[in-house]
């Protein structure tokens, strides 16, 4: 079934042609008119059959929710105390420039964090050798309806159209393992690379805070630094002693303290990394961020709300 809309709400009306538990995919054929958008999703411009990705989070709201998760504002609960970072700059009569910042306390509604689904798309060929961007196979049942709806809305938000298909597409002989991390060594060159990433990913008002954060982590990193690509774009991993510290540049996110060594972390999907059972602590970018980070840099084993 072809769908041409910006977004759907009731997925069941688009599945009436499929029997209960019938296998299907959500996809769109790659054509000249949409090749640029396929690349923006995160695929290689060569459209390699078998390449698998989680779409880039910054391409649309639906892709962001899939890759980064979302916060649900709980207006039914009492408000909680939070802090807002604010930074400003000025110049005196001698043209000397100054910068200062502070954290402003305020009350807000509580948030529930919904972890990312990290649903993947891949490139396959049909029997006529047309290339498609398609999801993995799902069965048409109640359990999968939310995932099918999200997959449809991701493609609609990018292409304004998509299809639900049951064509007999053969799985490729080899699945391409995409590279999700670029490894850098600590040093002056890496500092400048990371500063540029910060300037690209965060708002001007929060730029100074993030630069201070990553420079502190660089100075205390004894091993390689990993910069996220593909589905991990906007994440930087610093190895500080026995901890892997994952800094997120995404809005409304946090710094994650991981117990795993780098070899283990690099094999996980982002949804697994951010699963509550896999991280030691989650540190929000509030005034006491540096104080909490210092404890992990010093190797304090008593920290972490998920420690047993």
Describe the overall structure.
The structure is a single chain. By secondary structure, this protein is of the alpha+beta class. It folds into three domains: 2-68 and 115-165, no CATH class; 70-113, no CATH class; 181-297, no CATH class. It contains eight helices and 17 strands. The protein has helices at 35-41, 61-68, 145-159, 188-201, 204-219, 262-265, 270-273, 289-297, and strands at residues 2-3, 23-29, 52-53, 70-74, 80-91, 97-108, 110-114, 121-125, 131-135, 138-139, 162-165, 181-184, 225-228, 235-240, 243-248, 255-258, 279-283. The strands form four sheets. Strands 1, 2, 3, 8, 9, 10 and 11 form a seven-stranded antiparallel beta sheet that branches. Strand 5 (80-91) and strand 6 form a beta hairpin. Helix 2 (61-68) crosses helix 3. It is globular. 28% of the residues are buried. The model is unreliable at 170-175 and 304-308 (pLDDT under 50).
Task: Map the helices and strands.
Blueprint: E1 2-3, E2 23-29, H1 35-41, E3 52-53, H2 61-68, E4 70-74, E5 80-91, E6 97-108, E7 110-114, E8 121-125, E9 131-135, E10 138-139, H3 145-159, E11 162-165, E12 181-184, H4 188-201, H5 204-219, E13 225-228, E14 235-240, E15 243-248, E16 255-258, H6 262-265, H7 270-273, E17 279-283, H8 289-297
Helix pairs in contact: 2-3, 4-5
Order of helices and strands: EEHEHEEEEEEEHEEHHEEEEHHEH
Beta-strand residue percentage: 25-35%
* Helical amount: 25-40%
Number of domains: 3
Distance between the termini: 50 Å
Summing up helix and strand content along with how strands pair, one would put the structural category as alpha+beta
The main sheet comes to: 7 strands, antiparallel
Tell me, rounded to a whole number, the average pLDDT. Answer: 84
In the predicted model, the low-confidence regions spanning at least 5 consecutive residues are: 170-175, 304-308
Radius of gyration: 22 Å
Quantity of strands, as a count: 17
Number of helices, where a helix is a run of at least 4 consecutive DSSP H or I residues: 8
- What is the 3D shape? globular
